[in-house]
Amino acid sequence: MSDTVAVTGAAGFIGRWVTAELLDRGYVVNGLDDLSNGSRRNVAEFADDPDFTLREGDVRNLADVRAIFDDDTVACIHLAAKIDVQESLDNPREHFDVNVVGTQNVLDVCRATDTRLGLMGTCMVYEMVDSESGISEEHPTKPASPYAGSKLAAENLAEGYYHGYDLPVTILRPFNTYGPYQKTNMAGGVVSIFTSRDIDGQTLKIFGDGTQTRDLLYATDCARFVVDATFSDACVGEVLNAGLGEDISINDLAALVASEGTAIEHVEHHHPQSEVQKLLCDPSKAEAVLDWTPTVSLEEGVDRLRTWLREEHEEFDS
To answer: Directed axis angle between helix 250-257 and helix 190-199, to 10°?
Structure first.
């Protein structure tokens, strides 16, 4: 019997890639997703795999969380979360309920079953910084939205279970992740939005002046990081960043993505108070502890995403 990994948010964008990574490594995956943001289409290629099961349920329901754990479960990777900054400003309570109460349910089941936990955090918890050396795990936190606040609260709760109950917890903070299966509407990431709009010949719209920067991590590199860190004994009780270690302004990203003839336009920012001006990851800890480094450059990642999106657009149009 193969070891089982419980994955919350398994049908989401990153969840799909983490599931693929786990299945490739020979694990059985018991997934949980309420399909509010994820979709069965994301994991359709695993539907006939006997090592993959997806349960529709909610992390706010303790029974749903318990249902994806069995006697062979060796780890839980907790990815389920509300992740939209604007939604968190409009409805902060829902972000609290999913991101904090949901995380406590996961922690309680992990504690009851003595299961190690990889908890997905976010780089958005960090204080704004203009340092050229990048943001390390030692950098101060200063959440600028209810979304970031709820994610930091979930991390703090997990640290409390690590110190209070000796629960093996690792906190994962990948920077902005992009790739196939990411949404291309406002709920998606900037690379996916820009690339999809470029394929459709639509204007690339930049919020604000476009000088804000992002460190952009390709989905397969992120998934490998998440799995490696979750199973590393050296990472228990630690916070780890993952990113390219290079940032790019949104203006330069738009120029990179835009094909000849594609217009680029600046528009008013819809939540400027929550904007992080510079996000540059210092991934040296993950390299030192895990021997993890990203393998997909931004240019290669955009090319891969463009190829996938074109196939998706052709399939939709046919």
So the answer is: 30
